[in-house]
Design goal:
Layout lengths: L1 H7 L1 H14 L13 E3 L5 E3 L3 E3 L5 E2 L6 E3 L15 E6 L2 E6 L3 E2 L6 E2 L8 E2 L2 H4 L9 E5 L2 E5 L5 E7 L2 E7 L15 H15 L6 H17 L9 H23 L8 E3 L6 E9 L11 E2 L2 H10 L4 E7 L3 E6 L11 E6 L9 E10 L5 E4 L3 E6 L3 E6 L4 E9 L6 H27 L6 H23 L6 H34 L6 H30 L20 H32 L5 H18 L15 H13 L1 H11 L2 H19 L8 H17 L5 H4 L3 H4 L7
Parallel strand pairs: 17-22
Antiparallel strand pairs: 1-2, 2-4, 3-5, 6-7, 7-9, 8-10, 11-12, 13-14, 15-16, 16-19, 18-25, 19-25, 20-24, 21-22, 21-25, 23-24
């Protein structure tokens, strides 16, 4: 039977042998190993890769053991997938996947380890993978995209083809998005909330929407977060964007408000008009260190007052208040709008000034404080009244500067020098008028010059600061303009006469020069300055007188109606002086060969220098008051030109032998009159004869030719040897 059995089942024996071998092979499953495990030998089991036993044993033999999945993405393993990727656990294994909105360079999304990570952002907008409706505008963001509506459209969520799409509709909620180029999470969250408010907006709930918008703005400014870490220029751009956007939102939503304090109705059925005032106290955090730009008029006034120069960053004293109406065209109002700002008590110091300002938007989307169109009507310790000819975002700020005080030393030098010049000019004028021995064309020129300078200096000292009465100040400025121009014109005539006389030294034709100057000097000396002042006053009468001085205004180059002629005159006189100096020096050297050359040169140099000052050539020092040498030039200009009258008296009176002899006769006559008052009578004929005798005696003892004596004493009176 056994033989039959084995004979009848030969294939079965062959089949059972390999099955038994498989059943005991290492790693093969067996009936007594649990799920997710396999046999290691005939009596032991082991969990599959990616699983572990509850007991923690690697090899076990009990059939009640359980193999559980190992979470490679959780503790304690935490398999790293790298940046922009996430780990995903699956039963018995794991995989890495790029974060949403990212993909591998190969185009796939899954990988196994950090070394294989090449995840990068996907631009859904340009690739067409976005789900934005055709009424929206797709903007790619890191890892995703956003659908925004165009300007003056609002987003609505509506079902379309079974999906919820963001659809833009032209409803009265203005677009207000984050400014470009500013990276701020706080600002992004704020505009996300604004976008949500626009999506949920209903015209019937406009009041609630306005309150929500204001609340979001307050929260942003109260806790700005990373906005405080932005650069000052970026903060100013954000502030500009917030102010402009808030004004636009409130202007549009205000039209939907029911009739109330903020709404008035325009006539002729033009629809509701909105008037609004919005105070944003926290805006000062973004507007710190914002620059201040003064308008041209205020710059001129401050420059003329010389008491303030803007420096440093201004400090906000009040809240920033935005004023708006329905009509955006509010740049040139028919009448100014008055604002009264309350602020903390402050008393400006000597280097501080309070300004009414508004936030002016620049083309780059940022802005600055400006005073154009605004003026301060009144200010107190805790309030300031401003008047502006336009609507915008206003505030009161205090700017710091530094005082530019006048140099007290220069003031003392000016008053002392001009006082001495007045005395000398008076004595010189009396000398030219009473001393018959020296009266000629040259003396007439010096007399008119002395009179004009005397009146100009006297008016300057007594009336330059009389600015209280505007008309009187303008008259004083015009008189000073005329007198100083007349003084320079007589200096020009003096220089011309000096040159013509020197040129004709070789020919005895002095009489022709004298006749020419007599016909020319009075029409030119007084007529040309009168013509210049008349034209200036007729064209710009309002520019005579400044807030601090009764002098010419600097606006529109008006001061050049004085500086232009002056520069021309001293340039011409300098040329006349150099040519005259050269001619006289050569003539004297040929006439006085026996005189010490050193002595002659010293005397000629001294008197020529004085003549240079008399001709007004040193006024060019006023133009050189720039740069590091400005202070030195200011002292030289003040000292030299305030003593011009003293130089005239010195050269034409004290250094003239004829005048000194006449002074001696006058003094002797005075002493004699005091000694013998009852017997002394002074005859003008006697004085005249004595003067003529003295002049003749001087002429006979001089080796100079007669026509050379008629030159200015500063050039001709050099030592001459006696016969």
């Amino acid at each position: 039977m056994k033989g039959r059995y084995f004979a009848f089942h030969p294939g079965l024996c062959v089949l059972l042998i390999p099955l038994g071998a498989i059943a005991h092979k290492d790693g093969a499953p067996c009936a007594r190993c649990p799920r997710n495990a396999h046999c290691t030998n005939a009596s032991s089991c082991r969990c599959d890769p990616g699983f572990t036993s509850l007991s923690g044993k690697v090899i076990f033999s009990t059939s009640s053991e359980v193999c559980t999945d190992i979470n490679e993405c959780g503790p304690p393993l935490y398999m790293s997938c790298g940046s922009l990727a996430h780990c995903h656990n699956v039963e018995g294994s794991y995989y890495c996947e790029c974060a949403p909105g990212h993909e591998l360079l190969s185009g796939g999304t899954k990988f196994q380890s950090e070394k294989e990570n090449t995840c990068q952002d996907v631009d859904e907008c340009s690739s067409g993978k976005h789900q934005c409706h055709n009424t929206t505008h797709c903007i790619n963001v890191k890892g995703s995209y956003k659908c925004y509506c165009h300007h003056d459209w609002v987003a609505r969520s509506r079902p379309l083809h079974g999906l919820n799409f963001t659809i833009c509709e032209d409803v009265p909620f203005p677009s207000w998005t984050s400014p470009s180029g500013v990276n701020s999470q706080s600002l992004s969250r704020f505009f996300d909330k604004v976008q949500q408010l626009s999506q949920d907006f209903k015209p019937a709930l406009a009041k609630n929407t306005i309150q929500d918008v204001m609340q979001e703005v307050d929260e942003l400014l109260e806790t700005p977060g990373d906005l405080e870490t932005l650069a000052p220029s970026e903060k100013h751009c954000v502030a500009t964007h917030l102010l402009v956007g808030l004004e636009d939102v409130l202007r549009v939503l205000g039209k939907l408000l029911p009739n109330g304090p903020l709404t008035t109705h325009a006539p002729a059925g033009t629809g509701p008009s909105v008037v609004g005032l919005v105070s944003t106290p926290g805006m000062s955090k973004l507007l710190a260190e914002a620059p201040l730009v003064l308008d041209s008029k205020q710059q001129t006034v401050l420059r003329e007052h010389r008491d303030f120069l803007a420096g440093g960053s201004p400090v906000l004293l009040s809240d920033v208040v935005s004023a708006f109406v329905s009509n955006k065209d509010t740049q040139n109002l028919g009448s100014p709008v008055t604002f009264i700002f309350s602020h903390h008590s402050v008393t400006p110091g000597p280097t501080q000034k309070v300004f009414c300002v508004f936030w002016e938007h620049s083309q780059d989307g940022c802005g600055h404080w400006s005073t154009t169109g605004c003026r301060m009507a009144a200010t107190g310790d805790a309030s300031t009244t401003c008047q502006c000819s336009h609507l915008s975002s206003f505030a009161v700020l205090m700017a710091h500067g530094h005082i530019q005080q006048e140099d007290p030393v220069l003031a003392v030098i000016t008053y002392m020098g001009l006082g001495l010049s007045l005395l000398c000019l008076l004595l010189a004028a009396l000398t030219f008028l009473l001393c018959k021995a020296i009266q000629n064309t040259s003396t007439s020129l010096h007399l008119q010059l002395s009179i004009c300078l005397f009146l100009a200096h006297l008016l300057f000292l007594t009336a330059i600061d009389q600015t209280k009465i505007k008309l009187l100040c303008a008259i004083i400025a015009g008189a000073l303009h005329y007198l100083y121009l007349a003084s320079f014109t007589w200096m020009l005539l003096d220089g011309l006469h000096l040159f013509l006389t020197a040129r004709n030294l070789t020919v005895v034709n002095y009489s022709s020069v004298s006749r020419f100057m007599k016909r020319l000097m009075f029409p030119v000396g007084y007529g040309v300055p009168a013509l210049i002042v008349a034209i200036s006053a007729a064209s710009r009468p309002s520019l005579y007188g400044t807030p601090t001085r009764c002098w010419l205004h600097t606006d529109k180059g008006f001061v050049w109606t004085f500086l232009g002629p002056v520069c021309t005159i001293f340039s011409i006189n300098l040329a006349f002086f150099l040519m005259t100096f050269w001619i006289v020096k050569n003539k004297l050297s040929s006439l006085n060969r026996d005189v010490s050359t050193l002595q002659n040169t010293r005397m000629l140099t001294l008197k020529a220098t004085a003549q240079l000052l008399i001709l007004g050539c040193t006024w060019c020092l006023g133009i050189l008051q720039v740069g590091p040498a400005a202070r030195v030039m200011a002292y030289l200009f003040t000292i030299i030109n305030s003593l011009q009258g003293a130089f005239i008296f010195l050269v034409y009176c004290l250094l003239s032998q004829q005048v000194r002899e006449q002074y001696g006769k006058w003094f002797r006559g005075v002493r004699k009159a005091k000694a013998e008052p009852e017997n002394y009578t002074l005859s003008s004929g006697t004085v005249s004869d004595a003067s003529k005798h003295s002049a003749a005696l001087h002429s006979s003892n001089s080796s100079h030719p007669p026509h050379l004596e008629r030159l200015l004493p500063g050039f001709t009176e050099s030592p001459v040897p006696k016969p």
